[in-house]
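I hope you will forgive my troubling you with a question about protein structure. The matter concerns a single protein, recorded as an amino acid sequence and a row of backbone structure tokens. Please examine both parts with care and let me know of anything in them that strikes you as inconsistent. Here, with my thanks, is the record as I have it:
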Amino acid sequence: MLGVLDEIELQRTLVAEKRIQYGFDFSQYYHEWYNRTILECLVPSPGHTVLDCGCGTGILLPSLEKCYQKIVGLNLSIDNLLEARNFIRRSSLLVGDIAALPVAPQSFDHVICRAALHRVPDVRRAFRGLFDILREGGDLVVSEPIGDSRIVRFLKTTIKRRTTKH
């Protein structure tokens, strides 16, 4: 399992690849569709505060800016956030670890984790923190493109346990 410093170094090396990968027309089309699909999970309210948790190079942030006034992008890698600055107009960017979120409890109306949780070693701790920073009635949207990741297995197991109890 990668440590935090190893993950930061890995992300530093991937920034240039992401810049190329996300630059293709088909990539832009895919990410626009993916972002739209994620945003359809939320009821848009411009006054709501949104955290893009594990925002990477900011691929979701411009879509969030179309719907919300207060957006924060959080990522472990400063290199990713420096790249994200090229795409945003008003989002705030914050360096931080999903496993130890550097924000106050009940700070956000919506938290989105788009393809980020599969890199978190302690999923239970991450979810505790994510639910802790949500305001009452807030929404957590988790999207993982890796069907056999630890996070997807965790979610499936948790859902199965809760639905078989009732």
About this structure: The longest strand covers residues 134-143.
